[in-house]
Specification:
Elements (H helix, E strand, L loop, with lengths): L2 H21 L6 H39 L2 H8 L5 H9 L12 H10 L4 H13 L2 H11 L1 H25 L1 H9 L8 H4 L4 H18 L9 H8 L1 H18 L5 H17 L4 H15 L4 H33 L12 H7 L5 H8 L7 H21 L7 H10 L4 H10 L5 H11 L1 H26 L1
Helix pairs in contact: 2-5, 2-11, 2-15, 2-16, 4-6, 4-8, 5-6, 6-8, 7-8, 7-20, 8-21, 8-23, 11-13, 14-15, 16-22, 17-18, 19-21, 19-23, 20-21, 21-23, 22-23
Length: about 475
């Protein structure tokens, strides 16, 4: 059979498969219709809550990494020849600074990886960014118990280092070839003396500050330090925006008149609509994008790099969010995904009784072999489910509270906490586009396996 014949048969196969799917599509079913609605509800929620406040700043930061951070600096701290102790230490605690979700971290990961970072440190950063969130860990301890809070904190730091090292060892041959290959390194402005390193650091500090405080979540208790920061978050965000404007003026030689002109719409909207700060934030983002057309070659390159990340990542993210909503529902949905919540709850309980009740109506007599393998199954299922679900920052805690109240064991709860915030179906699609299927499947598999083992050990210790 010729290659042309195989190509035509492949096309025919896809057409037949599409016809079969459309022919048997259960469009009349109430659950199928509800799942479709949930898919678009999750996409709408994601667009409102995360695109403007999370992804847009992340794209700007990722683009800035590609333009303003010299490749020498990335290779020095994260490259294949960098000190392992230094690179993994920095990467593994990055989440304490970046309070981001599994999707927001992707442009930042892509930025440092494409600038030459080694696979291991880049993966450690990819995992730790959304997993090691100080506020989320504190909230976990307060709502779910101090044991889960401590286990999550320790597990997340260890996971980032161990998974990064394992990825480095598994793909050691490629990493050695990458280290041996001559790098096309160009001197950055900070190395040419035109712009000191502290200026670049201050500029990134302002952008990271905007990302962190604009997304500061509502604490469970309306008292204390976290709530005080939450109440002042938009004022703090505005101060970081002013700092970034000063950096553009003094360090990047953007005319002050243009900066003030770009800021006017954001200031007017902030005054006119104080209860809707997202409008002012969107206007500020648009103003910043407009400034890049008047700031010379560097800012033009910054805009192009940021736009390149957006084009690559956003379509995959939205497709993944639609799929996650269809299968598992939206945060506001109650048992509305194509997979009933009652089945998920039955599959992660302390005993198989709930599952047997669903299957046969009698959960009193569980076979011995099922009782024996049940801890393995529940932790594995919780890890896989957590890896596929999309958790915005802090939302995993109330979701888990509901699952624990419905009978979820402590072990599966930790497994979901360690796999869920760091992974999601949209996240996997984008990682695949950056790393390829082999590395992506390896990374996802390592997270699921380690989360499963950790959940089993934790369940045995606290049980």
């Amino acid at each position: 059979m010729t290659s042309d014949s195989r190509k035509e048969l492949k096309i025919l196969g896809w057409l037949v498969a599409l016809f079969a799917v459309l022919y048997y599509l259960p469009i009349e079913g109430a659950r199928f219709q509800g799942a479709l609605i949930e898919a678009f509800k999750l996409a709408k929620w994601y667009a409102r809550e995360h695109v403007l406040l999370c992804l847009v700043p992340a794209f700007f930061i990722a683009g800035a990494i590609g333009v303003f951070v010299s490749q020498n600096a990335v290779l020095k701290y994260f490259g294949p020849k960098a000190s392992k102790w230094l690179s993994y230490s920095v990467a593994s605690v990055s989440g304490t600074i970046l309070a981001v979700c599994s999707c927001t971290v992707l442009p930042l990961f892509g930025g440092i990886y494409m600038r030459g970072a080694g696979l291991g440190p880049a993966i450690a950063f990819l995992y730790s960014g959304p997993a090691i969130n100080v506020l989320a860990i504190v909230l976990t301890a307060r709502v779910l118990g101090w044991q889960l809070g401590v286990a999550r904190a320790v597990g997340a730091v260890l996971f980032s280092v161990v998974i990064g090292l394992l990825m480095h060892l598994i793909f050691l041959k490629e990493e050695r070839a990458k280290a041996a290959k001559p790098q096309e390194v160009f001197l950055g402005d900070d190395e040419k003396g035109e712009r000191p390193l502290w200026q670049v650091a201050l500029y990134f500090f302002s952008m990271v500050g905007i990302l962190v405080f604009a997304n500061w979540g509502t604490p469970m208790e309306q008292t204390g330090l976290w709530y005080a920061i939450f109440k002042a978050k938009w004022l703090v965000t505005a101060l970081f925006a002013v700092l970034m404007g000063c950096c553009l003026w003094r360090f990047f030689k953007v005319r002050l008149a243009w900066i003030l002109l770009a800021a006017i719409p954001a200031v007017v909207l902030a005054i006119a609509f104080p209860g809707y700060p997202v409008a002012a934030f969107a206007a500020g983002s648009a103003g910043l994008a407009g400034l890049t057309f008047f700031g010379g070659t560097e800012l033009n390159d910054w805009r192009n790099q940021s736009w390149g990340f957006a084009k690559q990542i956003l379509p995959l993210l939205f497709g993944g969010v639609l799929a996650a909503g269809f299968f598992l529902g939206s945060p506001e949905g109650k048992d509305a995904g194509i997979i009933p919540n009652v089945w998920i709850q039955a599959l992660v309980g302390d005993s198989p009784a709930a599952l047997l009740s669903l299957l046969s109506g009698d959960g009193s007599q569980a076979p011995g072999w099922l009782v024996l393998i049940w801890p393995v199954w529940t932790n594995l299922f919780a890890s896989i489910t957590g890896a596929l679900m999309y958790f915005a920052t802090l939302t995993e805690v109330p979701i888990l509270r509901g699952l624990i109240d419905s009978g979820m064991g402590q072990g599966p709860a930790l497994a979901l906490l360690l796999a869920g915030p760091a992974l999601s179906l949209p996240n996997m699609l984008v990682i695949n586009a950056i790393l390829g299927p082999k590395k992506t499947l390896t990374f996802v598999g390592l997270v699921i396996i380690m989360a499963t083992i950790s959940g089993m050990v934790f369940g045995w210790v606290v049980g």
